[in-house]
Amino acid sequence: MKLLAQQRDLQAKIPDIVKCLDVVATLQAKKGTGEGLITDFEVSEGIYSRARIGDTDSVCLWLGANVMLEYSCEEAATLLQKNLDNAKASLEVLVADLQFLRDQVTITQVTIARIYNWDVHQRRIRQVAAAKDT
């Protein structure tokens, strides 16, 4: 269950990182053109506001645990790309671990079924032997 929860978290995190990378790339593309970027951002759940973003050399990223740091656009893109690569690698490892666990569960179930069938067969042999003795 823990691995499945981690998988869900990573699968939710990867699109967010990609979206942040796209925003940073858009800001970098608009830089120096004099053209502002008009965007809607979420103020609270279900409440959005419109903003115009002018030329900027830095962005602020939430790092978690109520921590936000300001990075240059290049540093932010590098950090986000590194986080994306790490998240994808972690997801691959997690999927491999989950597949291994599924295989082990299947092997265990087959083994239990074989032991049960062996026990049933042994009891029948004993019953036949007991019936012949009487």
TrEMBL record:
GO molecular function: tubulin binding
Family annotation (InterPro entries): PFD3, Prefoldin_subunit_alpha
GO cellular component labels: cytoplasm; prefoldin complex
Lineage: Eukaryota, Viridiplantae, Streptophyta, Embryophyta, Tracheophyta
Lineage: superkingdom: Eukaryota
Any single GO BP term: protein folding
Pfam family, any one: Prefoldin
Sequence similarity: Belongs to the prefoldin subunit alpha family.
Database matches in PANTHER family: PREFOLDIN SUBUNIT 3
Keyword Chaperone attributed: yes
Gene source species: Carya illinoinensis
Keyword tags: Chaperone
Stated name of the protein: Prefoldin subunit 3
